[in-house]
Amino acid sequence: MFVGGGRTRGAGGMKDGDAVLVPPGLPAAWAAVTAALVSPAVPPSVPDDTISDALALLCEQGLAQYVEGWLLETLQVRLTTDVAPEFWSNLEQPKGDSQEKDRARCLLDAFRTLLLRLEPFLGGLEQLGSWQDEGRGGLVGPGAHGLRERAFSVIRAILLFSPQPVLQKRVLEFYSRTFSVHMSQVGEGLEVEQGAEEADGACVCPGCATPPQLCWCKEALEQLQELSHILSRLQLLGRVSSEAVTSILHRLIEERMEQRCRGEYENSFLADFNEWLEQVLGWLSRVFASEVDEAGTDSVAAKGKPDQPGSAILQRWRCHMHQFFCRIYVNMRIDELFSIIRDFPESIPAIEDLKFCLERTNQRQQLLTSLKSAFETRLLHPGVHTSDIITVYISAIKALRELDPSMVILQVACQPIRKYLRTREDTVRQIVGSLTGDAESSCDLANELSRADPVTLETQDSEDEGSDPDDWTPDPTDALTDKTGSKRRSSDIISLLVSIYGSKDIFIDEYKTVLADRLLHQFNYNTAREIRNVELLKLRFGESIMHYCEVMLKDVADSRRINTNIHEEEAHLPVEEQPSIPLSSMILSSEFWPQLKEEKMELPAVVSKAMEAYTHRFEKLKAMRTLSWKPHLGSVTLDVELEDRTLSNLSVSPIHAAIILHFQDKGTWTLEELSGVLGVSQELVRRKLALWQQHGVVQEEAGGRYSVLETASSKERPERAVMLIDSDEEGDSNTATQSEQREEKLQLFWAYVQAMLTNLESMTLERIHSMLRMFVATGPGVTEMDANELQAFLQKKVRDHQLIVSAGVYRLPKSTQ
Amino acid sequence: MKVKIKQWNGVASWLWVANDENCGICRAPFNGCCPDCKVPGDDCPLVWGQCSHCFHMHCILKWLNSQQVQQQCPMCRQEWKFKEGETS
C-alpha cells in the first residue's frame, strides 16, 4: 500500500512533465530513485550505477528538486493517515485495570511500532542526504543534516501536535517506576529497609513494588534503555520525557524534603541531598542514555576529554535539579523560619543551608514578607510576655545575622518587633533586668554584655570605615534607604536593644531605677555583682553616662563604713546608753539616686529615738551634714513572741514593723487609732495589717477593731489568709515607675499648652503637637512624644475639667481664661 | 506579745546643713557636687565664710584665685574669711 501511494505521487509528477515533454527513460529513472529511497535494501536492490544515471537524468530534466519534496510529503501523509493513529491506539491498548507491567510493555511496544513504521523513511532520508552530500549526478539540497532536521520536525509536528494525556500519563508512570527501581538498586541499604517497613512485612520488591517472584526490575531497566534509544532515534526524547522527568524530580525532591527536613533544624541536609542527587543523576543518565552517549562521543571528538562523565545534557539536568532543590528548600524553610529562629542556636545547620540556597534563588523578598507576617501573627500580640518577645528578638538578631551578613533582612524584618516593643511599658525594665542577670532565664544577654567588645554606640561608623575597602560589598537592593546609613549594619545585640527607644538615656535611666531598687532591697551591702555590671555598661556606654550609678554604688560602700564606725562607737557605751534596737542605714546622695517614692510615716518612739541617736553620731562623723530619714523604706528583721508560739526572723517592711510594735504596747487598736499614730491613711493600714492577719498574729474583731491573738486556738485563719494575700501586693518597687516619671515630664508641657490656648483660643491636636515640638525642642522628652501620647495626656486634662474639647478642637474652659 | 527587733535597716539621705539649696557660684545643688567633681560629700565639701555664705569649696577657691586685688565673698562683697572650724 505504501509503495503504491508513492507511485501515485510519482505518476502525478510525471503527468506534469507529460504535458510538456516526456524524455525517454524519465519515468523509469523516477521509479528507480523513489524505490531506492522508500525501501532501502541491503544490498541495494537497484545497482548503484543505475541510480546515478537515473539521478543524472532527473537533474537534467530539473526534476531532482522534487525528489526531496516528494519524500517528505509521503512521510507526512503516511504519518497522518496511518502511523500516528496506530501509535495512539497502541498506547491505549490495555484497557481497564491492566497491570502496570503490561502498561509499560504497551508503551514500549507503541514506540517500537512507531520506529518500525518510520524506519524506511529514515533510511530513505539518509540515502537521499548522502546523495545530496555527494552531489551525485549533480543533485543539490540541504544535505543529510538538513534533511534530517526537516523530517524530524514533520514527525514531531504531526505526532505531538495534539498529544493525548495518556502518553504523558504512561511515560510518567513508567519513568517513576524505573526511577524507584534504579534508586533501590543504587541506594540499597536505607531505601530497601524503608521499602520493607512500608510494605508491613509482606515481602515486596522495593523497586517495582511486586512480590519478588514477579519482580520485573531488570526488565524495566532494559525497557527503559530501549525506550530511550527509540526516542533518541526519533529525536523525541526531549519532547516526550523532559516534562515527565521534571515533574518526577520535582515531586520526589519535595517528598523527600517533607519526609526528612520538615521540622528538623539541627542537621544540615545539603551534603545528604547532594549525594542523593548524584544517585538521581545515575537514573537520568539511563533515561537519556543514548543521547548521553552521542553527546559523550561528540565531546570526546571535540575536546579530547574522554573521561568526562557528565555530558552537556546531564550537566544541564544537574543544574535544574539543584535549582529545584534550592527553591523547594527555601520555600519550606521560609514557612518555618519563625520556628527556626525560636530554636536558635540549635537550628544553626538549617540557617546555614537556607543561606546557601537563598543565595541561589531570588526569594529574599518572599522571605522578608513571610517572616514579617509571622512575627506579627505569632509574636506581636498582647498574649505574649514582653520578655518572650525580647528573647525571640535576640534569637532573630543572632539567626538573621548568620543568614544575611549585610543585616538588611534583620533590619527590615525586625522593624515591626522594634515598633511593637516601643509600645510596651515594661520593655526597658525587662531588657535592663535581663542584661544585668536579674532574671534566671536571661544569662544570654548578660553574657552578651560581658563579651565586652568595647564598641560604644557612637563609634560604630568609624569602625565601619576601618574595615578593608576591598571587602566592601554593596547593599542588597532591598535595603531600606534611610538616613541611618551604615548604622543599620549594626548587629550588636545590645546596641540594637538599646536603640529600640532611639536613645540610650532612657535605657540608662531605667537601669538606674533598677539598680536603686536592687540596692534598697538587699541590705547586705554586697555590691560586687552590681559593680561588675556597671563596669561592663561603662565599656558600652561610656564613663560619663554611668557616673550616677557609680555614685550610688559608692554610697553603699560608704554606708557600710559609716555603719561599722557608728556601731563600734556604740559598743563602747555603757549598757544602759546603748540603742534599744540595732539600726543600720543606707545613706544616699539624694541628687544621684532616682526619685524615691515619698511617703510620710511616723515611726514608734523607740525607733525614731534610735534614728535620732544615729543621726547624732552621723553629724559628729561628718561635719555640717545631717540625715533625712525615709521612714517607709528599708527592711526590718524581727521575732514575734506570743504566749504559745514564736515567729522568728520575719523580714518585713518598716510599716509592718511599726504596726506590730504598736500592738506590743496595746493589745487592741482600731484603724483610726493606728492611722492616727502612724500618720498614714486607714486604707494603707488595713492593707498592711493583712500581713499580720496572715501570720495569725492579729485578728479582726467586730466593730473594726484589731487585736493580738496570743494563742493560736482558732484554726480559722488559713482561709482568711488566702483571701488576704493579694492585698499586700502593691508596688514592690521603691522608686517611682517609669510612667509616673513620664507623667511628670508631661506635666511640664501643660504650662505651654495653657499658654498657647490662652493666646490662640482653640487648637487642634496636630497644631498643639507641632507647636510643642517647635517650642520645647530642647527638652529630652518632647522629641520622643508622639501625637497619641499627647492626645492621651490632653484627654486626661479634659476628664479633669481643665480642658474642653469639641469637634477635635481643644480650648480652655471659660473660668480659667 | 513581745516584739524583738533583730535588725532595722533604714534608708536616709544625707544633706548639708546650709541656709541655701544651691551653690551661689556654680548653681548646682549643695547636695550634689561642683562641676569639676564627680562624687559629692567628702570629696566636694562646702565651706562657710564669716559672712555666713557658703559655697562648694572648689568653687570658692577658684573664685578667690581669680580675684586679683581683694578677696571678697561673691554674694555680699564683704572681705572673704573662712569660718574657722567648720570646714571638714
TrEMBL record, chain A:
A Pfam family this chain is assigned to: TPR_ANAPC2
Q: Report domain Cullin family profile positions.
A: 494-693
* Protein name from the UniProt record: Anaphase-promoting complex subunit 2
What does the similarity note say? Belongs to the cullin family.
Record keyword Lipid biosynthesis present: no
Molecular-function GO terms, alphabetical: ubiquitin protein ligase binding
Assembly and oligomerization: The mammalian APC/C is composed at least of 14 distinct subunits ANAPC1, ANAPC2, CDC27/APC3, ANAPC4, ANAPC5, CDC16/APC6, ANAPC7, CDC23/APC8, ANAPC10, ANAPC11, CDC26/APC12, ANAPC13, ANAPC15 and ANAPC16 that assemble into a complex of at least 19 chains with a combined molecular mass of around 1.2 MDa; APC/C interacts with FZR1 and FBXO5. In the context of the APC/C complex, directly interacts with UBE2C and UBE2S. Interacts (via cullin domain) with ANAPC11 and with UBCH10. Interacts with NEUROD2. Interacts with FBXO43; the interaction is direct.
- Per the record, the domain of life is Eukaryota
SMART domains assigned? APC2, CULLIN
What task does this protein carry out?
Together with the RING-H2 protein ANAPC11, constitutes the catalytic component of the anaphase promoting complex/cyclosome (APC/C), a cell cycle-regulated E3 ubiquitin ligase that controls progression through mitosis and the G1 phase of the cell cycle. The APC/C complex acts by mediating ubiquitination and subsequent degradation of target proteins: it mainly mediates the formation of 'Lys-11'-linked polyubiquitin chains and, to a lower extent, the formation of 'Lys-48'- and 'Lys-63'-linked polyubiquitin chains.
**Keywords, ordered alphabetically:** Cell cycle, Cell division, Differentiation, Mitosis, Neurogenesis, Phosphoprotein, Ubl conjugation pathway
* GO CC annotation: anaphase-promoting complex
Region of interest (Disordered), ranges: 454-485
- Cite the InterPro entries for this sequence: ANAPC2, ANAPC2_C, Cullin-like_AB, Cullin_homology, Cullin_homology_sf, TPR_ANAPC2, WH-like_DNA-bd_sf, WH_DNA-bd_sf
Q: Name one GO biological process term.
A: metaphase/anaphase transition of mitotic cell cycle
TrEMBL record, chain B:
**Gene Ontology biological process terms from the UniProt entry:** anaphase-promoting complex-dependent catabolic process; cell division
Keyword annotations for this protein, in alphabetical order, are: Cell cycle, Cell division, Metal-binding, Mitosis, Nucleus, Ubl conjugation pathway, Zinc, Zinc-finger
Which family, according to the similarity comment? Answer: Belongs to the RING-box family.
Q: CDD domains, per this entry?
A: RING-H2_APC11
Q: What does this protein do?
A: Together with the cullin protein ANAPC2, constitutes the catalytic component of the anaphase promoting complex/cyclosome (APC/C), a cell cycle-regulated E3 ubiquitin ligase that controls progression through mitosis and the G1 phase of the cell cycle. The APC/C complex acts by mediating ubiquitination and subsequent degradation of target proteins: it mainly mediates the formation of 'Lys-11'-linked polyubiquitin chains and, to a lower extent, the formation of 'Lys-48'- and 'Lys-63'-linked polyubiquitin chains.
Q: Which Pfam families match?
A: zf-ANAPC11
Cellular component aspect of the GO annotation:
anaphase-promoting complex
- Name it: Anaphase-promoting complex subunit 11
Q: Does the keyword Ion transport apply?
A: no
Q: In which pathway does it act?
A: Protein modification; protein ubiquitination
Organism for this UniProt entry: Astyanax mexicanus
Nucleotidyltransferase as a keyword?
A: no
| RING-type domain ranges (all copies) | 34-77
Q: Where located?
A: Nucleus
Assembly, in brief, is: The mammalian APC/C is composed at least of 14 distinct subunits ANAPC1, ANAPC2, CDC27/APC3, ANAPC4, ANAPC5, CDC16/APC6, ANAPC7, CDC23/APC8, ANAPC10, ANAPC11, CDC26/APC12, ANAPC13, ANAPC15 and ANAPC16 that assemble into a complex of at least 19 chains with a combined molecular mass of around 1.2 MDa; APC/C interacts with FZR1 and FBXO5. Interacts with the cullin domain of ANAPC2. Interacts with UBE2D2.
The record's section on InterPro entries has: RING-box_E3_Ubiquitin_Ligase, RING-H2_APC11, Znf_RING, Znf_RING/FYVE/PHD
- Name the Gene Ontology molecular function terms of this record: cullin family protein binding; ubiquitin protein ligase activity; zinc ion binding
